[in-house]
Structures are given as structure tokens and as C-alpha cells.
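Hello K.,

You asked for the raw outputs rather than the summary table, so here they are, unedited. I folded two proteins back to back in the same session to keep the settings identical. This is the first:
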Amino acid sequence: MAEPHWLDEREAHLWQAYRDLQRELRNALDRQLVRDAGLTGADYALLVPLSEAPDGLVRARDLGRLVGWDRSRISHQLRRMEQRGLVAREDCPEDARGSMVRLTPAGRCAIEAAAPNHVTTVRRFFIDQLSDDEIDTLAALFGRLLAGLTNHET
């Protein structure tokens, strides 16, 4: 096996800063969600695509793909959310092995309560810290990095 191409000091600093930013931003967003709506970041991650779907209904496997989670994680999270009345699972009419996930009225209320302060927090700690040019540059860079990940299996 070839010797890895180690990060130099500049590259290591960038990588650590990115990891720290990601952790601290997620923590700030999670604190806001719990404080304002009693939701976890995982709850919010699933409530967003459900709230945007026609009739608030998405096939469970498609919901997992939308958020990038494996079947086990999506199943466990849905079970917790179902117990709290945020979602309901239904049989899939096209496939007896599949299930559909429906946003309940309580789930809709929860996301509608959380969203305004969530977007305020995103703006405060991320968007408002950047100039218009920096937003455009980061959007292009993130798009390129994401494309590289989705086009290459590790």
C-alpha cells in the first residue's frame, strides 16, 4: 500500500476549521430546535422534506435517500417520531414491503413553529457572516465538492 499524501499545515488547518465549523453550527442549530420546538436535528431533517411533499406523504426509502440515511437509521428515527405523533406510517399501495410516511398535523405544527427561528439562526451564524461574493464562491465550491463525492464511490 502506498504511503498516504499527508496534509500539510495549511491543509490540516483548513480541514480542522471546517470540522469545527460544522460541529459548532450543528450544535447551535440543534440547541435552537430543542429550545423553540422540542425537535432534534434529526426530527427537523425529516420534517422538512415531508412538509414540502404533496400531501405531506413520502415513501420511507425515498425519505431516507433525501436525507442520506441508511434504512436502519431512518426506521429508528421514524419510530421515535411516530411515538411522539409527528409522523404516521402507512402501507405502500404499490409495494407491500414498503411503507409511506405521512406528516401529521402535530408534525406540521412542529415544523411551522421551528422554521422561522431556524432560518434566523442559519442567517445569524452562517449567511450573514458572508458577503454576496463569498456566498456565490462557497455555493460554487460546495457544489463542486458535492459533485465529486456523488460521482465517486469510496
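The second followed immediately with the same parameters:
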Amino acid sequence: MFSVTVSDSIMIAHSLKGEVFGPAQRLHGATYVVEVQLRRAALDRDNIVADIGRARTLLAEVLAPLAYRNLDDLPEFQGVVTTTEFLALEIFKRYRDGVLAGRLSGDTATALAEVEVTLLETPNAWASYRGPVRAD
């Protein structure tokens, strides 16, 4: 399996409701390094997994609506505990939708097997979500 990874960063604010989160129940900020790894079984006719420039552009566009926002204020997250794990899944879904819409060009949408999204909170703590591009 071949892979290529692109990354960006995002700053958000949120609060995590629930006793398990201790002081993180209060409003606080987080800066994440976001990595997206694209995987496919064979390289395309240009010997690439995907165009890195388009992959980076798509990631920036996926992150833009979340950047510098208090996630607690966004309608789509009302009543949701926006943990790092949850955000990895949410970014995965948004990125996958862009892939399926043809944003990476060529046969990428049909040839990619998996996308993995990793959010690094610190150099010592991160969370990931990995899933198929298509739900065959």
C-alpha cells in the first residue's frame, strides 16, 4: 500500500462537558497539527498517490470553517463533546467528501483505498481516525 501525507494546523476553542474532562470542561484553546494520509494499492499513471498540492489545498479548505472558532458556538456541534477523537472523525468525513467530489483530480477518488486523519494536540498526545474512501 502506497501513502502520501499532507499537514496543516488549526486553532480552535471549545469546552468539553463531562466530569471526566476535569479542567477542560472550561472554555480553552487548542492548536492542532492536522495530518491527512492518503493510501492506495498502486500508483497512478504519473507514479503518485495523489497530487500533493491539491491534497494540501483540500485540507486547508476543510479546516477553514473551524479555524479560530469556538466550536461550542457552531450549530453542527451543539450538544456534542468535541474531543480530539471526534474532530479527527469530523475532518475525515469532510475531507473524504472532497475526495469523492473529485477535488484531487484524475482517478484519485476511485483509486484511493483509505484516508487517515491525525490530530496532534502536543508532541506527546494525538488521536486518529482511519476509514475507507468508499463504503462499498
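The two ends are 19 Å apart (CA to CA).

Happy to rerun anything if the numbers look odd on your end.

Regards,
P.
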